[in-house]
């Protein structure tokens, strides 16, 4: 199976870190990597004050930078079955990502923590937060700045057991196949406190993961859920954190600005966000 991976870039060191991670994560897989760069006006009225020659110059420079980036990635890749394409657009970033996912049947978006503009308003850049919230067509893997690739032997999946995910877990299972990873399911609470619904969902999850290396872990909460997950990452040497982004989920809560300024675990290891199935 050929993987189609979208790599939004602003040509920064942050986005290059994400590209390097993607190349190493899929080093032994047939892949087509799409380097995406957008250039558009944040305020449409500002276009009035910018000449068409300036716009054309920026367009040509961006296209040239994309070609150079593609060549640089080719030189880093060790797999002859890696293919590279470039996508340039003057449409808004979110629209372009959605259209590119649909057009090229993208399986996964991989990007840096600062998004595609290197924005520094949050620990996650504003573009990254928007993409997590608005792009529900495929999973998104977010790579910390300057993160050195580590073979993902341990992948954490926090859950409250309040719902059964089923095929929503398929991207996680596909990820484990790349490097024979083990799924470490973690529930922040004690086992004896499960409701009947939670117990049922736990049994269903165990059955779903039966043929995959996995274990169920219970993490008593002596503080916040955020801190419990941070501790779990350290304790089990977790290499990738995975969450499913559904309404009222934990991930939705920590993407709010007051929380995102307090949580730091998403800058420690790569973070896979899987969209909810509708």
From TrEMBL:
All residue ranges annotated as the UspA domain in the record = 1-144
Q: Which InterPro entries match?
A: Rossmann-like_a/b/a_fold (IPR014729), UspA (IPR006016)
Domain of life (superkingdom): Bacteria
Family statement drawn from the similarity comment of this UniProt entry? Belongs to the universal stress protein A family.
Record protein name field: Putative universal stress protein UspA
Q: Which organism is it from?
A: Winogradskyella psychrotolerans RS-3
């Amino acid at each position: 199976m050929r993987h189609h991976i979208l790599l939004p870039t602003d040509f920064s060191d942050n986005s290059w870190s994400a590209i390097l991670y993607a190349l190493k994560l899929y080093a032994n897989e047939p892949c087509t990597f799409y380097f995406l760069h957008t250039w558009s006006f944040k305020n449409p009225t500002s276009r009035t004050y910018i000449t068409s020659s300036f716009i054309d110059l920026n367009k040509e420079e961006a296209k040239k930078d994309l070609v150079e980036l593609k060549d640089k990635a080719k030189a880093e890749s060790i797999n002859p079955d890696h293919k590279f394409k470039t996508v340039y657009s003057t449409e808004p970033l979110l629209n372009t990502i959605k259209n590119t996912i649909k057009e090229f049947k993208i399986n996964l978006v991989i990007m840096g923590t600062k998004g595609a503009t290197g924005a520094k308003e949050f620990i996650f850049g504003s573009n990254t937060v928007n993409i997590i919230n608005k792009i529900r067509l495929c999973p998104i893997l977010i790579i910390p700045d300057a993160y050195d690739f580590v073979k993902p032997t341990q992948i954490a999946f926090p859950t409250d057991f309040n719902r059964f995910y089923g095929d929503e877990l398929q991207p996680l299972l596909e990820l484990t196949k790349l490097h024979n990873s083990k799924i470490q399911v973690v529930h922040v609470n004690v086992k004896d406190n499960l409701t009947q619904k939670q117990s049922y969902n736990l049994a269903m999850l165990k059955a779903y993961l039966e043929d995959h290396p996995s274990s169920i872990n219970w993490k008593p909460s002596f503080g916040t859920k955020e801190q419990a997950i941070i501790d779990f990452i350290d304790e089990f040497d977790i290499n990738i954190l995975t969450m499913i982004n559904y309404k009222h989920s934990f991930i939705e809560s920590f993407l709010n600005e007051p929380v995102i300024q307090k949580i730091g675990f998403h800058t420690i290891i790569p973070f896979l966000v899987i969209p909810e199935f509708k």
